Amino acid sequence: MKVLMQRFNIQIGISGVFAGLLAIFILLSPRTFLSPQIYISFASTIPFTALLALGLTFLIIAGEMDLSFPSVMAVSGLTFAELFLATGNAGLAFIAAVAVGSAAGLMNGMLVVRVGVPSIIATIGTQFFWRGFSTLMADGLARNLVPVRDTLLHHLFVGRLTGTIPAQSLWCLGIAGVLGLILNRHAFGESVLCIGDDIRTARVMGIRTGRVRILLFVFMGAVSALVSVMTCLEMANWWPTQGEGYLLLVFASIFIGGTSVFGGEGTVFGTLVGAAIIGIIEAGIISAGFSGFWTRLVHGAIIVASVSVYATIFRDRDTA
């Protein structure tokens, strides 16, 4: 038991934080948090943040960063909207959007791995590039996608199972399960962890570090496109600011979930629970009678506190 507690101390800790927070919100707002409707609402919104956070978790474990994903969402979402409006084929538009997102991720990977630009700098640049490009192509105007609600793709990605359960929550759990297996049971996951722990050692061990890192950037681009298409389907609209607002939520989910800001440490489970914590905070604050302005303050405080706590844990573990 003691060995298990030591091995899964972060997962147990983050689960305890989630349970404690939920208990507080139930005490403060029993009418809201004892109603099934609020959890159905969470199941329709949290998966978008969680999927983005899961993709970015792999990059951060590998010691990299991607700040461009909100803008990649904008350009891939615009691709989906324009192609759907031109052809009426939602499946074709989805494939094109994922291809554009993957290409944007490949561009980030090539800049970082082949050109040698630090990932934080490279993705700041591409963030501005893709945001400007999508706004220019859309002429700053939103796209109405109401007809997409009648397509099979809509029912597949954001429909309601038995009329209640949002499909995106099932996709999120399924993808999280696969990513968890890859990270913990597959050679690719071991390579990601090893690169983040010490990239020089990883090279000595024969791991193709450049290839792995490029694949991670491509994967993040594809995930950004997937979430963007899901958002378009859910809202039946594309707008030039699509993706903005996710940056803080995604990083908060990752760092609350115990992923090390220094790389080499992180779990899919932790990120998933971190996204759930971030998702319920705003509803909890507002239903408790506080102003919505408190939300960002609480998010920021939680990020600083969690990063500080985990940095202390990882440092003590390394020096033990």
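Second entry:
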Amino acid sequence: MTDRDLLQWPCARLLDQHPYARDFFSACGNPAMDRQQTLGDFLAGLTPDRLDALGMDRTTVVEQFLAFIHQMQRLQADRDTAIRSVTVVGGHDKDGRPEDLQVTLSAGEMIAVVGPTGAGKSLLLADIESLAQGDTPSGRRILINDRPPDEAQRLSGEHRLVAQLSQNMNFVMDLSAHEFLSLHAESRLVDNVAGVVDQILQTAVALAGEPFDAKTPVTALSGGQSRALMIADVACLSASPIVLIDEIENAGVDRRQALGLLVKKEKIVLMATHDPLLALSGSRRLVIRNGGIDAVLDTSDEERILLQQLDTMDARLTTLRNRIRQGKRLSLTH
């Protein structure tokens, strides 16, 4: 389709195939539109007063409209881009000793990042978030699908491949949870905004264990509710195929359920953690010491048996925690 072809389309066909074009018409003041009128005729029919209000001449309006359509098409194409793998090519630790390794993570895989506080776990997550190319203190390089990322993937906010859930999360916008999620869903060009927003809200409430509704201002959410909302948002809506999580055990959410949601979406999940249950939930764990990756440990069969025992213990702790939260007494049978 050429730009000339597009301008000859009836407005009805344009809105059917590119519904986001309504946003452009709204920005034009939403003048009366004949759906059988061609797009070119519609744009040609903008009055001088309307053009003055827009601050553009007629030629510029046409150029801006075509640029808008092309940009939205690129965003949709990016949403469908498949990321099969992420590879960390070793750099060096804090003393300059080389990391002699190369670690490849596949879609649908969860990897734990473990090590003492200050060892460099957050630095590794930051290297992946920035898609480092030897230009960070660690000297690491990150490959996407076995190739270095292009500049658009690294630097453009529109092409972000990585979503990060940090330990601290604060909202500054004066919006309800529903308004916040709707805004995000519309920016992602999803087809069913209302349905996706409802799904995220229900998921977030289930994760948080503390009820809140669509009208709750995001600034009034507790720490656990905030992180539950963002985890649900990343799992259900975010197009970023790589998710970095920093110590989800401090989030006050059902962490096992949260991980299950993220991995189920075929995302690549890296999680810095001190929690043995979470560390053993991954297929591997990267051991960080002195700023470098010291070892890569596959989860052993014995550790998987231990994980089942930890799951049982965690389920009991969750029951006791919920009873305390509800103001109930505890007993040996719980």
